[in-house]
Amino acid sequence: MFRVEFELLPLAEVPAWGGDHPRLHWFGLTSGWYWIRAQDGEFLRYSDEAVRTWELERPYPDYYVARLWEDLVVLRWALQEPVPEDLIPFVDGTFSPREFPEADDIGEDVDAAFEVQSDYALDLGYLTDAPHLSCWRHAGNGSDMVTLSQQAAPRQQGTFAVTERLDVTVPTAELFAALDDFDRRFLAAMQDRVAELERSGPPPGVELDLQQLRAEHTQRSHWLERRLAVRRDVDWTKVRAGAAELSSWPPACPPVAAAADSRPTINGR
Predict the structure, then answer these.
(1) What letter would DSSP give residue 11?
(2) Taking 90 as the threshold, does the pLDDT of residue 260 lie above it?
(3) Sequence-separated (6 or more) residues with CB below 8 Å from residue 239
(4) φ/ψ (deg, to 5) at 98
(5) Tens digit of pLDDT for each residue in 187-211?
(6) With 0-12 CB in 10 A as exposed, 13-18 as middle and 19+ as buried, what is 229?
(7) Residue 17 DSSP one-character state
(8) Contact 8, 31 (CB under 8 A)
(9) Is the pLDDT of residue 57 over 90?
(10) If DSSP codes are grouped into helix, strand and coil, which group holds residue 5?
(11) Distances (CA, A) of 48 to 42, 69, 112, 159, 161
(12) How high is the pLDDT of residue 267?
């Protein structure tokens, strides 16, 4: 069973933003934990060693659930069509980063290639030692499947439970149902949170515009519906040309590894 899991931090424990002028808003109120469960393993689960070292309350990212939700809305839209077979190695996380040329103008083909590549990758750069998490749809010979892949670079291995790589392939319909279900459950949880604050008022000393909070929740409740209503029109010929040009650029040097005892990013602090 494929399922996007989350748990919101109790409302009384949600940290305010702003230091000396504490405030809260819809995004900040989504503070919690999230992970992805599949039959063959869990994505975004910290290793037992990381849990012990950092004394984590749960073995999952402690961040704003809205951050994952926003990325999955875009991913759900991008998965409306399969990726051509010859371009799967460009979007599956195995294409190595490249050094940019000195010229500022990199061309429309490369821009198109970068845009498509980003559509199939979840941006987890806010997490310490973040793995690369990509997802793409592939169809052929009567099958229509989606693959989710979590990969960790050698210097990042050990932070998350998946040492090197975890791939899970499920029918597209199952993946779509799981993402739609996550959207419903997450927005329902936030509806309860907004309603509770409308009854109780904001926490003492914390600035919170309840009218704006309700308006933003109403607007965000239609994000997935509105995104899916937008026609996805990818010029795969242009993307293919951009990927070919990128392949001619020299591989980028890997970044310097972070200190082994650094704490994971928690709630943006």
Answers:
(1) G
(2) no
(3) 87, 90, 109, 112, 113, 116
(4) -120, 155
(5) 999 999 999 999 999 999 999 999 9
(6) exposed
(7) B
(8) yes
(9) yes
(10) strand
(11) 13, 26, 40, 9, 7
(12) 41
Q: Which class for 163: exposed (0-12), middle (13-18), buried (19 or more C-beta within 10 A)? A: exposed
Residue ranges per domain, the chain? 3-247
CA–CA dist 20, 225 (Å, integer): 38
Length, in residues, of the chain: 269
C-alpha distances out from residue 126 to 66, 188, 250, 264, 265, Å: 13, 26, 26, 9, 7
Tokens of 253: 């040097």
Rounded Cα distance, 192 and 244, in Å: 49
Residue 251 CB coordination number (10 Å): 9
pLDDT at residue 102, as a whole number:
76
Taking the model in full, what pTM does it have? 0.91
Sheet of strand 121-122: strand arrangement? 121-122, 132-140, 143-151, 165-171
> What DSSP state is assigned to residue 46?
B
Give the pLDDT band of residue 175 (cuts 50, 70, 90): very high
